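User: Hello! I'm new to structural biology and keep hearing that structure can be predicted from sequence alone. Could you demonstrate with Neutral metalloproteinase? Please show me the input and the output so I can see what each looks like.

Assistant: Of course. The first part below is the input, the amino acid sequence of Neutral metalloproteinase. The second part is the output, the predicted structure written as tokens.
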Amino acid sequence: MPDDHRPDGLTRSSIHAWDDSSSEALSGITAQRGVRAGIAPEVHDVLDPESAARGYLDDALASPSLPSLTAPEAAGVPTRFTTLGTETVALTGTRTVKFRQALHGIPVYGSFVVVELDEDNELVGIDTTMGQPEDVDPVAAIAPARAVEVARGAPGGYTPLTDVVPRLQFYFDAADERWRLVYLLEDVPVTTRGGAKGDDAPLPEAPHLVDYVIDAHDAAVVAVLPRTPSLTAQAQEQSAVDSYGDQRTFAAQQDGEGLVLRDPEHNVETFDFGFGDPAVDADALPGTIIANPPDWSPGAVSAHANAIQVARFLRTVVLRNNIDGRGGPMTSTINCVVQSASGGPKEWANAFWNGTQMVYGQIRNGEELLSLSANVDVVGHEIFHGVTGSTARLEYRAQSGALNESYSDVFGTIIANLGNEDPRTWDWLIGERLFPNREALRDMADPTRFDQPAHMDDYRDLPVTQNGDWGGVHTNSGIPNKAAYVLLTTEEPDGALALTPHEVSAVYYIALTQRLSRTSQFVDARRASVASARSFLRGRPRDERDRKVAAVEAAFDAVGIA
């Protein structure tokens, strides 16, 4: 079904084999498989997934029964689709083939097309997010080197520390409501510099990675997009107390005559920064790997054991091999202090994912320092920022940024409550027990308790500046958080849960990693969740599947995301 919600200049459309509104059209596409390409139907099943997906996509775009699904043109030049990759989704037994839209050979920023196939190359669904750049000269007037030069002097309190390769893209400038040809400089390491005043002035902690968007015709700085989310050999089994005095069991690795905090099975490792400043000495991260002797510190135990707990969730529940999906290292660094934002000696009440690892500060708790890695929901939150960065790469601003925060909250909460199969009795507070004078950071069951909206009627349109929380990423995340709470606690008439925590985990994970892209909005999260539920539940009896899909739709309805 089409969706004309276009805050990023993009139009969405979705069809799915188990959606009654599109199943007839989809069946027609399947019946015509291979005809347009001159491929006999019996040959179709042995095609590689990309070829099969391209055939289905071509047929869908040409189908008169799907008038809303069209490939935009620019000055008579047709859309082309460049392949992003093919992925097997273990949770559904399906494969997704992902494409990006390009015009004149130039990618359209935020565009994303997913074709889902079953094990026999039969079409399961197609989701499209495409744009139609109009009145834009596709020939750049400035050289890439000029874009780098402009970025070095860009406003907003940033200074690039390393050169990157600018790439041309068509980009929708929401402020001017027009398309531009831009150079995109991605994942630029930055640091703050002083001198600016007002709402756009840098706060003590600027993002550590940004994307620069530079107009390729007039060299204007169109946008500076934050990318770093923040929080406000043979193993030996070890046992030690964590930050809350609880006994934890975890794996460490032999290193000479001692041990270090490295779990080779899960590729989890934990370091100490010695209260250094990760904003100033980023190149010194991850620090020194934590060793025994001396005895394990409680903060180190929390960071290490909690990261292992998250790694197990990734591998056993959503079937993902660590943050990058390839078994890469999951690195944590404790005892970090951003001095410009320190609340006292050795204190820094924040944590963040810096693009490659988790970084944790600590707060004063009586006479002791309490690491922000003490809470597994916070650790899960930061690690899922890494998962998002490896998959959807949701922009850290406005609705896409609020989704970035919300997915981290949702999975952090699910992980923290593992073992309790009844979410109606869960602890829904994020970061509880961390702050002496504050109960928690957020409450997913009742976002309004901590000054977050719980419904689109109360959505806050905040400036996309650091003072404006990048458009309210930690504020408006209360809305999708509430939707997740509603879904996890929805009951059927007999009192049973409509979906189990495992089912919700699967639906949300598939939506995040397979169906969302940089500029996805709240409505895209709804669409992605519904389509993911249909795919995940495709083997269930129809009445059961329909009830569960309806519960997903109702959860988003409950918070005004329609």
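User: So the tokens describe the shape?

Assistant: Right, they're a compact way of writing down the 3D structure. Reading them back into a model, for example: Residues 298-316 form the longest helix (19 residues).
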